């Protein structure tokens, strides 16, 4: 996989007009949402609106994780745009596929078609077909997570969450998604939740309820994590840590996040800790885990991804 790229000193962050030789649209044909219809609609819009005629490839996934392979292969085409018609999790697979390729000119984009579309909602500037026609691309930071034993080295476009966040997600995945069922899952899981222990780099140990590394200011549809106004292109990310507290205090913080927001948060370029027990974590909506006594490192990958839209 590519190493974390250094920030490009020649990048002025201004838009650059691009015309693509190929546009690869990756989608789940068996999506519970409307991904196939949205993918077809995007293709039709591009064919009608673009002032030139790139090759448009429709790439349906066949199994979980297939989008990683499709995106990596698509990135081998020079001057390609890779579009994920999905939620945050599907887009995560696409960016990891692109980042694992050796291409330096691949551009990424997402059309929201999932249960959670936090990234598109907080970063999009205009409808995708319109943005592609104008050809204005820009750089965006990614989060890079690695573990001490090298078992995991992946990218996230929006956030990485340890503690309560992935535990709730695991419980939600056990049943069908929907507003009422999601609420019931959250209440049930919260009542049963037990804190996790981590060790910081200075050797101190701490019991935590939640630890989130955020590249965007919002997650979970309604929660405002920080007041950061910068788009995710400043070489840093926000750290939102909830030390273990009484459940009523955690509820107050959750209510604050859903209403007024959590306020200013600490911004860093790198954060390390040791998971003292097995810990689940959520990577842009996808749930994974690290074993006990594992060193976890989260770093900003400045200007790692070129995006449009």
Question: What's the gist of this structure?
Answer:
This protein is of the alpha+beta class and 309 residues long. It has helices at 35-49, 66-74, 88-100, 118-123, 128-134, 164-173, 179-192, 247-258; strands spanning 16-17, 22-27, 55-60, 80-86, 107-112, 136-147, 153-156, 159-163, 196-200, 205-214, 218-219, 223-224, 237-243, 266-268, 270-275, 279-283, 286-290, 294-308. The protein is 28% helix and 35% strand.
SSE order and pairing:
Blueprint: E1 16-17, E2 22-27, H1 35-49, E3 55-60, H2 66-74, E4 80-86, H3 88-100, E5 107-112, H4 118-123, H5 128-134, E6 136-147, E7 153-156, E8 159-163, H6 164-173, H7 179-192, E9 196-200, E10 205-214, E11 218-219, E12 223-224, E13 237-243, H8 247-258, E14 266-268, E15 270-275, E16 279-283, E17 286-290, E18 294-308
Parallel strand pairs: 2-3, 2-4, 4-5
Antiparallel strand pairs: 1-6, 6-7, 6-18, 8-10, 8-16, 9-10, 9-15, 10-13, 11-12, 13-14, 15-18, 16-17
Describe the structure.
By secondary structure, the chain is an alpha+beta fold. Helices cover 28% and strands 35% of the residues. The strands form 3 sheets. Strands 1, 6, 7, 8, 9, 10, 13, 14, 15, 16, 17 and 18 form a 12-stranded antiparallel β-sheet that branches. The N terminus is likely disordered.
Overall pLDDT level: 80
- Net shape: elongated
- Rg: 19 Å
Strands, count: 18
Largest sheet descriptor: 12 strands, antiparallel
| Tally of alpha and pi helices | 8
- Please write the string of helix (H) and strand (E) elements: EEHEHEHEHHEEEHHEEEEEHEEEEE
Strand content: 25-35%
Helix content: 25-40%
Regions with pLDDT < 50 over 5+ consecutive residues? 1-14, 170-176, 220-227
Secondary-structure content class: alpha+beta
Cα distance, first to last residue? 26 Å
């Amino acid at each position: 996989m590519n190493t974390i790229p250094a920030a490009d000193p020649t990048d002025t962050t201004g838009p650059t007009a691009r015309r693509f030789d190929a546009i690869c649209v990756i989608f789940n044909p068996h999506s519970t949402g409307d991904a196939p219809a949205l993918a077809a609609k995007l293709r039709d819009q591009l064919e009608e609106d673009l002032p030139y005629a790139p090759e448009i490839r429709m790439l349906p996934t066949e199994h979980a994780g297939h989008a990683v392979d499709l995106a990596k292969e698509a990135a081998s085409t020079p001057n390609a745009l890779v579009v994920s018609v999905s939620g945050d999790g599907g887009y995560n697979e696409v960016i990891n596929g692109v980042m694992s390729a050796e291409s330096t000119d691949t551009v990424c984009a997402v059309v929201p078609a999932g249960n959670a579309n936090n990234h598109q909602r907080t970063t999009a500037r205009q409808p995708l077909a319109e943005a592609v026609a104008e050809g204005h691309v820009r750089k965006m930071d990614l989060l890079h997570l690695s573990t001490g034993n090298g078992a995991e080295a992946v990218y996230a476009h929006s956030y990485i969450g340890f503690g309560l966040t992935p535990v709730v997600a695991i419980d939600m995945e056990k049943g069908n998604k929907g507003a009422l069922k999601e609420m019931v899952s959250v209440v049930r899981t919260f009542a049963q939740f037990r804190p996790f222990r981590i060790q910081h780099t200075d050797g101190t140990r701490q019991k935590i309820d939640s630890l989130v590394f955020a590249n965007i200011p919002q997650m979970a549809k309604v929660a405002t994590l920080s007041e950061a106004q910068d788009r995710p292109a400043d070489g840093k990310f926000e750290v939102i840590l909830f030390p273990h507290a009484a459940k009523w205090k955690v509820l107050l913080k959750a209510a604050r996040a859903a209403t007024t927001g959590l306020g200013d948060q600490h911004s860093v370029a790198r954060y390390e800790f040791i998971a003292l027990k097995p810990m689940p974590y959520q990577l842009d909506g996808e749930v994974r885990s690290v074993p006990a006594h594992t060193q976890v490192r989260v770093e900003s990958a400045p200007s790692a991804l070129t995006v449009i839209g």
